[in-house]
Amino acid sequence: MQIQLIWCWNMWEIILQSIISSWYNTKDIFIKTKTDEKELYLKNLYSINTWLNSESDILILATKPKQFHELDLNIFKKDILVISIMAWISIDKIRSKINSNKIIRTMPNTPMSVWEWVIWYIKTNNVTNNELEFFTSTFSKNWKLIECKNEDEIDKITALSWSWPAYFYYFTEIIRQKAMEMWFTEELATIISNNTFIWASKLLEKSNITVEQLRLNITSPWGTTEKAIETFKSNWFKNNICEAISDAYNKATQLNN
Known about the structure:
This protein has a seven-stranded mixed beta sheet with strand order 2-1-3-4-5-6-7, sandwiched between helices. β4 (81-84), α4 and β5 (103-107) form a beta-alpha-beta unit. The chain has eleven helices and seven strands. The chain has helices spanning 12-21, 36-46, 65-70, 91-97, 129-139, 151-162, 164-181, 186-206, 211-217, 224-234, 237-256; strands spanning 3-7, 29-32, 58-62, 81-84, 103-107, 118-123, 144-147. The model has no long low-confidence stretch (mean pLDDT 87). It has two domains: 3-148, 3-Layer(aba) Sandwich (Rossmann fold); 164-256, ProC C-terminal domain-like fold.
């Protein structure tokens, strides 16, 4: 089985490592990136091939949307299995660029880099059991896989989950900025904001208590946390978040179309 990878974004090497760790022979792995320097680095580090192999059985696309539209994929054989790791590129768009009806579209994100992430995916009916086995065995080795019913679910997950790390970091930024306004040094403000979110997330991960109950456990009646929550509610904090997610979903559907 020969595997071709075309990519140029931050998660490319994590995916390659997962394929190699699944015991695939590196002589059957081909890669093409945007720069000769990156290809030389990959070749020296992993002993893989650095050219386009038109006889590949599997094509993994991890380009950005604009770069995908610039690709010429007609060199590949008919009905090659295509695994997309691209945001906002629908199955129909992929099919219009390559002569194959065997497509698996995934929705990954940067937390993949620490091997902690759920990969949502959808596949066309033409994907064989053996091809699906390659995908699941390779990707479930380090990440949890959940199959979606349709591409609309992928768009919703884009707004709810794929974009969520950016929301999380933005909220962390706000806490850090407020700490500095309260005359903490930049170093202490970073510790306050980052560590608070990191350890709250770890508690959520390890606990069998619901997220609502975890919040109530630290919201004492007439206390500081209750006062902050009341302020959030009075300023339509929940409504603003829900509206932002809806806007992100609408943008995802617009980009897909």
